[in-house]
Design brief:
By secondary structure, the protein is α/β, with parallel strands linked by helices. The chain folds into 2 domains: 3-211, Spore Coat Polysaccharide Biosynthesis Protein SpsA, Chain A (Alpha-Beta Complex), CATH 3.90.550.10; 213-285. It contains 8 helices and 10 strands. It has helices at residues 16-24, 45-55, 71-81, 101-111, 146-149, 179-187, 215-232, 238-284; strands at residues 3-9, 32-38, 60-64, 86-89, 95-96, 115-126, 131-134, 143-144, 161-163, 191-204. Strands 1, 2, 3, 4, 5, 6, 7, 8, 9 and 10 form a 10-stranded mixed beta sheet that branches. Helix 7 runs antiparallel to helix 8. It starts with a strand and ends with a helix.
Length: 285
């Protein structure tokens, strides 16, 4: 098996058809499997998947969860199920737009053994506004390493094809998010290729686990992730470790700034309320 396509989905009834159609339209010269983790959605996601299973017999391996596993355990189980030489990702609210996406990425990795991940440019779709935006990742070099990735995760999950030559440790399923730690765990001393072709859409909507989170919650999440990475000591590159520690300090500073800003905002609101109350009282007397 050349490639496995890993899909996790939960309550994506509005989006999952577009995800599946983007996958089915891939034009490739190699064998691949589509593995889906349906995490006991409370909408019609399960029924939509069942309809596709019936329409395309043998094309999907769908794991219907019962009970709900949670995003990261679902993510880990799907990865551990993948048998392909490579793994591509597309969550159930994102979609691929280029039918040659997988062929381009697999061809590159086949020809460049010193690269462990191949990603690409993408568009963002802002669901509540109904508009597309560029990713603003054009400043990312075409070749990067774990030193760069340790600063921040510039790889959108639905753009990544990675070599499937690793085994996830048990602690991984307890993380808050999976993509950035996975890419750090997988890449090690190899290089990362970014193609300049825009070949997918990353959807930003209120139901997204990470994109809908507040800045405070994101910074707290990053701190927990970095602490887990450092605790489990799987990164050997000293510069990458240093960059992670700098990121950790930056997140802590950001949290202090956010909390201070919130306190100032609350004080202002209290002051305005007090002034209004005072004026109202003076009018009465």
């Amino acid at each position: 098996m050349k490639l496995s396509i890993a899909v996790i989905t939960y309550n994506h009834e509005k989006f999952i058809k577009q995800t599946l159609e983007g996958i089915l339209k891939q034009n490739v010269n190699f064998s691949y499997e589509i593995i889906i983790g349906e995490d006991r959605s409370t909408d019609n996601t399960k029924e939509i998947l069942a309809a596709y299973e019936k329409k395309y017999p043998g094309r999907f391996l769908i794991k219907y969860r019962n009970p709900n596993m949670g995003a990261i355990p679902n993510f880990c189980d799907i990865i551990n199920t993948c048998k392909g030489e490579y793994i591509a990702f597309c969550e159930g609210d994102d979609y691929w737009t280029d039918p040659l996406k997988l062929q381009k990425q697999v061809d590159f990795l086949d020809s460049n053994l010193d690269y462990g991940i191949c990603c690409h440019e993408f568009k963002k779709f802002i669901e509540d506004k109904g508009v597309y935006e560029d990713s603003n990742y054009s400043n990312i070099p075409e070749t990067t390493t774990i030193k760069d990735l340790a600063k921040w995760c510039y790889i959108a999950t639905n753009t990544a094809v990675i070599r499937n030559d690793f085994i996830l440790p048990d602690w991984f399923s307890h993380l808050k998010i999976g993509d950035w730690p996975l890419f750090l765990f997988q890449i090690q001393n190899r290089k990362i290729k970014k193609m300049n072709d825009q070949m997918s859409v990353y959807r930003i909507h209120s139901g997204g686990l990470w994109t809908s989170a507040s800045q405070l919650k994101r910074n707290k999440g990053d701190i927990e992730i970095i602490n887990s990475i450092l605790k489990n000591n799987f990164i050997k590159d000293s510069k990458a470790i240093s960059n992670l520690k700098i990121k950790l300090i930056t997140c802590k500073i950001n949290i202090l700034k956010i909390k201070n800003k919130n306190r100032v905002s609350l004080l202002r609101k209290n002051k305005i309320f007090w002034l209004k109350s005072k004026r109202s009282y003076m009018k009465r007397i």
